[in-house]
Specification:
The complex is a heterodimer of chains A (95) and B (336). Chain A has 95 residues and is of the alpha+beta class. Chain A has helices at residues 25-29, 55-59, 74-86; strands at 14-15, 35-38, 41-44, 65-66. By secondary structure, chain B is α/β, with parallel strands linked by helices. Chain B folds into 2 domains: 4-173, Rossmann fold; 178-335, no CATH class. In chain B, 54% of the residues lie in helices and 10% in strands. A 5-stranded mixed β-sheet of chain B has the order 3-5-4-6-7, sandwiched between helices. A two-stranded antiparallel ribbon of chain B has the order 1-2. Chain B starts with a strand and ends with a helix. The chains are: A alpha+beta (95), B alpha/beta (336). At the A-B interface, helix 1, helix 2 and helix 3 of A face helix 3 and helix 15 of B.
Amino acid sequence: MKDYRYLDGVATLRLDADACIGCGMCVAVCPHRVFALRDHKAVIIDFDACMECGACGRNCPVSAVDVRPGVGCASYIMGVWLARLTGDRVKPGCC
Amino acid sequence: MDGFLDTPAGPVPRVRTRLSARDRFQTATVRIGFGRNDFKVVPGLYCVGSPSAASPVIVTGNYKLTFDAVRRELCGLDVWLLVADTRGINIWCAAGKELFSTDEVAFSVTRTRLAEVVSHRTLILPQLGATGVAAHVLRRSCGFSAVYGPVRASDLPAFIKADNTADEAMRAVTFTLRERAELIPVELYLLGKPLVVALLACFLLSGIGPDIFSPGAAWSRGLAAACATLAGIAAGCVAVPLLLPRLPWRHFSPKGALLGAAAGMINALAFAPGLLEGTALVLWSTAVASYLAMNFTGSTPYTSPTGVEKEMRRAIPIQAGAALIALSVWLAAPFA
């Protein structure tokens, strides 16, 4: 995925190094290799590759990783905006 | 299907690892978009080869495209295949919608009485399912611990052979030319009704002129406008996905605008209208392509929601402005 980079400095990803127990789950589940394990602690090695899928946060047994998960899909976000305007429910999108 | 295997929890259907001509035909039609929302297999426990109580259990979803993608890679292996009910949606999207969830996997384990079929207590989950499943909670709720397998089913044999370990390449998503090209038919199919309405509007609005409505102008100018729309679609829905990593800028809307302007220029030159109408046509193609390219973010595996929302807030006013100017100029041109 080296050829693909989206916007820098926007991801909502946070890692609490003190809480981390170094289990390596975030390293395993991240589809963009954002984490690595160093000295029995997880570290963020590629923050801007994060697509906020939320896999790390969900699989962290001590809630040391926090991210606001969602889908990076323009038509879905548009649906959410429209639903907010009309007070309707969000229509299921393409996926 | 290839017979049944008797287990303490009843007969388990054995699936073939070779796709039939019918499977391939169905895959092709679903890739185009037909029947995409109802392409399912029955959830439950299946097997490949002749697994024993010690054989690995691979968990997947019940979208048939997903089910086929997994089983075709298991040739020569003896494994159990636990199919969760993801309502016919692929693993990653289903995990994002909480359909492929900790509860759903635990429920599948209980319902299929998996504990009576196998002697070990390990499930191989698809890595992309991690968005919906919490491995540490799963163990507590059904007694099975989860090991995250590779992203792609094609790496499953190597993963199992390496004693359930994945290397870095198995753990990272890719977005190859082939993977991008496979998405194009559905992108076009999803345009559907709005496209028909837009094309009709092109012809109707183009007929408006000094003599109120001219059927001749509706046809000749309408054709130019409709082709400008199609040029925008070709740029935004076909060229952008194909050329994605080669295009400049990280935002998707300028990538689309660039190709849309180029396609629009060719279209405008082909119809050779005056400067005013030509400008309107190019602007329209650019706006359409930019918007559609932005929508392609939803089909890529690397755009973050925060990033997409940021891009949309900036791009939509510009796209809407360009489209409005194009429309105004196009409508005003016959009176000039």
